[in-house]
Amino acid sequence: EEGLPEAYGAPTRDVLLVSAIITVSLSVTVVLCGLCHWCQRKLGKRYKNSLETVGTPDSGRGRSEKKAIKLPAGGKAMNTAPVPGQTPHDESDRRTEPRSSVSDLVNSLTSEMLMLSPGSEEDEAHEGCSRENLGRIQFSVGYNFQESTLTVKIMKAQELPAKDFSGTSDPFVKIYLLPDKKHKLETKVKRKNLNPHWNETFLFEGFPYEKVVQRVLYLQVLDYDRFSRNDPIGEVSIPLNKVDLTQMQTFWKDLKPCSDGSGSRGELLLSLCYNPSANSIIVNIIKARNLKAMDIGGTSDPYVKVWLMYKDKRVEKKKTVTMKRNLNPIFNESFAFDIPTEKLRETTIVITVMDKDKLSRNDVIGKIYLSWKSGPGEVKHWKDMIARPRQPVAQWHQLKA
C-alpha cells in the first residue's frame, strides 16, 4: 500500500508538468493571437490613416505633404512635431516607412500631373500675360517756361494687338490733359500697322505751369474703324507733377486696358451650320445674357447685325428684331449666307450687338468676329463648324469692344 502512492505519485508529477506546459502554451497562444489581432488592427488603422492623410488636405500630415509638393527642388518640408500620446521612438517606428512610400508616390504622381496638365499655374500665367499684352508706346513731354507751353511728342508704338478681322489694326492716338476732356488732340491714322511710327508733336500753349502740374497726361491708342465706332486698344496715364518738365523726358510705357472698354459687355449664344453641298452657312442668333446697359434707365434695346465679309469687303447684311428694355433677350432668328467652299478661308462673319436709340445714333454693345484668324474661341467655333457639316454647332461668345 505504501508503494502504491509512490507508483501513482510519479505519474501525477508528470501529468502536472504536462498540464503546466499545456497551460503556458495556451496562454502564449492566446497572448500571441491577441497581439496579432492588435497588430492587424493597428496596421490596418495606420494604413487607413495613411490613405486618409493623402486624400484629406485638412489633416496635419496632409498639409505638410501638400506643401512639400509645391516646394522647389532641394527644398524641405517636414512635420517634426510629435503626435500626442506617443514617444518619438514609437512615432519613428510606426510612420517612417509607410509615410515615405506614400509621400513619394503622391509627390511623383503630382509632379507628373503638373507637368502633363495643360492648365498648370505656369501655363496659366503665360496665358494671362499673352492676353494682357497690348503693346507699348513711346512718347516725350516737356515744358517751356518762357512760352508757357507744354510739348507732347508721340513717337511710336510696338506690338499692338490686331483688332480687325484682317489680322491687323489702323492705330491712332488721342491726347488729353485730364480732367479736361473737351480739348483733345489726335495723331494721324497709320493703316494696317501694328508697329506704327508717328513722330508728331503737339503743343498746349498758354498753359501756366501751376496748372500743368495739376493735370494728368492721358494717351489713348485706338483702332480706326470706317464703318463703326473706333475700337480702343490701350491707354497710358502719367501725372505731370511726377515728371521733370524742365527738359524733354522720353518714356516707354506698356499699354493698359482702356477704362471705357473694360468690364463685361455680355455674352451671345449663336450656332453655325455649314452645308458644303449647298455652299451655305446658316447663322442662328439664339440669345444673349448680361448685356451692358447703354441707356440712362439702366437697360438696353438690343438687336443683332450680322455682316458677311469677304477679303475685307462687306458682302451682305442681316439683322434681328429689336428687343425692348431687355438685357437677356431671346432672339432665335436664323440667317443663311451663300459661301462657296473655296472662299471660306477669306470669309469673316461679323456679329454686332447694338442698342437701338430713337433720338440719337445707335450704340455698339459688343462684337464677335468669326473666321479662320479670329480669337481662340472664335476660331474653335469656326473649325468645329467645318468639322461637323450639316450640324448646328452652338457656342457662347464674350462680346468685345
TrEMBL record:
Cited SUPFAM superfamilies: C2 domain (Calcium/lipid-binding domain, CaLB) (SSF49562)
Domain C2: 133-253, 264-397
GO molecular function: calcium ion binding; calcium-dependent phospholipid binding; calmodulin binding; clathrin binding; phosphatidylserine binding; SNARE binding
Keyword set includes Lipoprotein: yes
Chain spans, region Disordered: 51-104
UniProt similarity note: Belongs to the synaptotagmin family.
InterPro entries reported for this sequence: C2_dom, C2_domain_sf, C2A_Synaptotagmin-7, C2B_Synaptotagmin-7, Synaptotagmin
Transmembrane annotation, as ranges: 15-38
Basic and acidic residues compositional bias, start-end: 88-98
GO cellular component, one term: presynaptic membrane
UniProtKB keywords: Calcium, Calmodulin-binding, Cell membrane, Cell projection, Cytoplasmic vesicle, Exocytosis, Lipoprotein, Lysosome, Membrane, Metal-binding, Palmitate, Peroxisome, Phosphoprotein, Repeat, Synapse, Transmembrane, Transmembrane helix
Gene3D superfamilies assigned: C2 domain (2.60.40.150)
The protein's name in its UniProt record: Synaptotagmin-7
One GO-annotated biological process of the protein: regulation of insulin secretion
Quaternary data: Homodimer. Can also form heterodimers with SYT6, SYT9 and SYT10. Interacts with calmodulin (CALM1, CALM2 or CALM3). Interacts with CD63; required for localization to lysosomes. Interacts with APP.
SMART domains tied to this protein: C2
Membrane topology: Single-pass membrane protein
Cell compartment(s), UniProt: Cytoplasmic vesicle, Phagosome membrane; Cytoplasmic vesicle, Secretory vesicle, Synaptic vesicle membrane; Lysosome membrane; Peroxisome membrane
Gene: SYT7
